[in-house]
Amino acid sequence: MKLTDLKKVDCGFFPTPLHKLNNLSKELGCNIFMKRDDLTGMGANGNKIRKLEYLVRDALDQGCTTLMTFGGPQTNHGRQTAAVAKKFGMRCIIVATMEESGPNEKLSGNLLLDAILDAEVIFLDTSSIDKTPGRSPDDIKADTLRLRRKVADLIIAECAEKGEKVYEMPAGGSTEIGCMGYFFAVKEILDQLHEMNQPIDYLICPSGSNGTYAGLWLGAHYYKAPFQVIGSCVSPHDPVYVEKMAEYINRASAKFELGVTAKAEDIHMLCKEYAGPAYDTPDPVTFETIYRLARSEGLFVDPCYTGKGFTAVIKEIENRNIPQGSNVLFVHTGGLPGLYSQQHLEKFSKDLWEGRPHRIMG
User: Fold this and answer.
1) Average pLDDT across the chain, whole number
2) CA 352 – CA 358 distance, rounded (Å)
3) How far apart are CA 311 and CA 60, in angstroms?
4) DSSP state letter for 246
5) What DSSP string describes 97-141?
6) Model confidence band, residue 348 (pLDDT cutoffs 50, 70, 90)
7) Among candidate residues 35, 42, 43, the one with its CA nearest the CA of residue 15
8) Who's near 147: CB < 8 A, 6+ residues apart?
9) pLDDT at 99
10) Full-model pTM
11) If DSSP codes are grouped into helix, strand and coil, which group holds residue 18?
């Protein structure tokens, strides 16, 4: 497939802003910039809109009537998929891997927005999977994927009986087509930097389902961008993770005949450094970053994705892995509804409210 054959729908507001963080730049001794993909314009914003522009076009071209995707109960991709589905007259089904609180989780964060958008959230009950201590995480993950596949097939069959055709997207919309949203975002970034007459040495983004990083890396090499793309994982991964990332990039490059090849040693991923104990698990370092950015620049990042990603910016500079005086660009991928999810609200209450003196006047 030629790159010129790739089509999309329009549902985002682009280009998103790119600006300097003056106060933190002075504090850290580097020129720090932020690409504001928390302002993409639909469904409470976020990076998935760039992917969905291409994925939804593919779905419509195939005559699909329903978008189905996967994630945790607080999936940002699910919420943005639901918003775009409504714009194009489609149904949305989100298969959410059930956490301990399961479907009884309070209606908060993305779950609230999913409900407002009338998305159908189906909780995947993983209680039948053997999770005894000492069992390999890879085996548990494989069992979860098999169960997810079984449930997805049942949903597709149910929809077919009603005359509906399902377009299935993996978590994060991270397919060869989906990652092209961030492939083209590189050209947008380069155009903005050229207009600003501003060089960039490092581009840093949070990395969860791989599509954003893969697209940025592929675009940076295709367009010969003069910066290194660094991904900060939001879940702790072993080094083998970079091999899978390289394979993903190469599949996308081959699909669109881009002539770019990635090797594992070419991939700069911070696999465990700032991921915290687990995915979407509150950790004190990430919350320090949330407070520091808000109190220095008046900007918010979330505890699951962008808080960990921006921690990488701060710590890589403070630890001198990024030299003083460097020009650093952080891609803010959104996710702000996560600030209002139940588990994180409890952490904020302890940090910011309980035991804090309050004044009543009047």
Assistant:
1) 95
2) 11
3) 39
4) H
5) E--TTGGGS-S-HHHHHHHHTTPEEEEE--TTS---TTS-HHHHH
6) very high
7) 35
8) 124, 126, 128, 129
9) 62
10) 0.96
11) strand
